[in-house]
Every structure is written in structure tokens, then in C-alpha cells.
Amino acid sequence: MPIPAPVIAELTVVTHANWRVQQLCEHTAARQHFGMDLDGADDPCALFWCPGAWAAAATTRYPQLRLSSAGPRWLDTLPVAVTGREIVTRTAGAVAETATGVGSSVFAKLPESKHDCFAAAVRTPRELADACARLPVDEPVQLSTPVQFAYELRCWVRDGQVVASSPYFVDVDRQVWPQRQMRTCDREGRGWLQSVLDAGLDVPPAVVLDIGWCAAPATGPPGWKIVEANAAWSSDWYLADDMAAVCATVAASQRDVPDRWLWRPSPLLFTTCRAPLRR
């Protein structure tokens, strides 16, 4: 049985993209915030969909604003049976010092941040060392065995239930996505993830999990695997099949957040949030 979506008084959408607010207004009360200041972040009743840099500034100035996430090392704790690859998260300083001793290329990304200075990519040991040397020494860097996902699905999870989903295709323009969608794959992926959740996967009360079909995992047989976890309050909703459930998950990701799932901005995000903090 689907989880009922609670009524949301209003969602503040921190973005310059008018179309995002227009989309949300079809499903919930929403207002646009251009992110030039921290207006409204001190309101204990406010709910936000926002980028990480703005959230870093807002939670620094107003610590009573509690946002949730799985944490930068959540993937490290999962069995390879559900990831299909080895994953480890280390500090940029440690990686910069030791990467050249690694024998092969690895997929490297910032686990909970997005920044042009360190795009998610497969890097040689030398490329990895050079890129990490440009990051704050204590910035988390996630390293994993490179694998390919043939079909990827974003899933919104609330109270242990998959409540919405959307495929996404990083290799083509967004307007082409509906033509690439395979609803049979969507149902299969959701069913697989729900079975993993039912088996006891430890996740925040509200989170977004990306999964993908992997024909050639580094470890184990082909099948659906967990790609990554994302904060619900900043995740793109793509072609979500239930926007009311998406909005409810965004709201739940910042209500009564347990300490163990409290989002903490990374050192790199602190360097990008100084402008709003000055206002």
C-alpha cells in the first residue's frame, strides 16, 4: 500500500530556473528563492529544495535548520553484493599522497558535493593525485572500481518504502529521456530496491537512492546495484512518476532529523558558501 503523502504548506525552491518552480507548483505550494541571501532560512516551519552550497551557508548561520543525508561514507558500509564493486572513501590529502602507488585507474567523485573542480570521472593514479591535491586536505573523496550501468533509476525512499522513481540518462539531452524510458525496467528496479530495503538496508527516513542495471559488475553476477545515495532536499526529480511523493520526501528529509543522519557540509562547500554568509 502506498504511503500517504502529507500536506506541505509551502516548499521554498532555491534556484534561478523558473521552470523548476513552475513544475512544482503543479503539485504543491512553492515559491522561488534566487539564493542571493539566506532569507527565510531562520523560519522553523520553512521547507527547502536547494543546492548544497546554499544549504551549507544556511545551516552554518542557522544550525536549527537540520537537513538529512546518508553521509559521505554510507556506500563504504554496504556489501559488495548490492554495489557490485569495491568502494572506499578517504580524505583528499591521503589520496593525493598515496594515489600514485595505485596500479590502475579508479572512478573518483565527491560523495556529497558537486563542484566543477572535481567532476565524477575515471582517473589514472597520476590524474587522481593531481586532482586531489587541489582540494581541501580533509575533503572526502570516494573511490570505486569502474563499472558501467546500462539503465539507471532514481528512487525516492520514505520510511523504508520506495515511493517514487525516475530513470535518468547521462549520455543524452533531457528532452529525449521519455523516449529511452523502459517502464518494465523501472518496475524491476523498484522491486529489487524494495527487497533490499525489506532485508534491512540501513537508510535515513527520507533519502534518494540511485540504482542501475550492471551487466558486468566488478564483483558478483549481473543485476541491479546501488549506484549512490543523494539528499532528498537537493536531488533533481527528473521524470518522477509521483511528484506528491517526491515533495513529501523532500519535506521529510528536514523534519525531526536524527543526529546520525544529520547532513554536514564538506570543507569544499564551505569555500563556496561565503557570499550568502556575508549578506
TrEMBL record:
Residues 64-247 form the ATP-grasp domain. It comes from the Bacteria. InterPro entries: R2K_3 (IPR025643). Pfam families: R2K_3 (PF14243). This is ATP-grasp domain-containing protein.
